[in-house]
What we know:
This protein is an alpha+beta fold. It has one domain (about 40-140). It is about 25% helix and about 25% strand. It has helices at about 1-25, 125-135; strands at about 40, 45-50, 60, 75-80, 90, 105-110, 120-125, 135-140. The protein has an eight-stranded mixed β-sheet. The longest helix has 22 residues, at about 1-25. The radius of gyration is 23 Å and the shape is globular. The termini are far apart. Residues about 30-35 have low confidence and may be disordered.
Amino acid sequence: MLKHSLIALFTSAAIGAGSLAAATPTYEPLYIFDGQYTATLKQHSHRWQLQPLRGDEVEVSDHAKDCGSPKPIPNGLWIVSQDAEGRPQLVAPSVTALPAGFPQHVALRACGEKADGDLALFVPAVALNWINANVGSVLIDD
């Protein structure tokens, strides 16, 4: 009888813990890929895809040594903004997971331009001009 009571006790405790875990909400970022960005960077292949509202998307490749970033930029959605001097930058929203110590702001600079000391992503000038004037967010992907 004691054996059956212990089995019943452990079984009900396991079922109760399982239902509690199922009822606990998860706070993972909700990410819907379509329509949340107007430019994509495939950073390992150095390819920008610019997606205008009208017309076909435009691809720009940046295989020059002075393009790209010395440190890989984490994949995810980045908002295009301006720094205190009015120069373009990428800002990671809360849905973009950043490794420990990685800055939330990444400067956008034309290929060959000098960096300010902060981490910078060097972009072909034609793409940078288009991003600065037309893009609200960038999807960085491998």
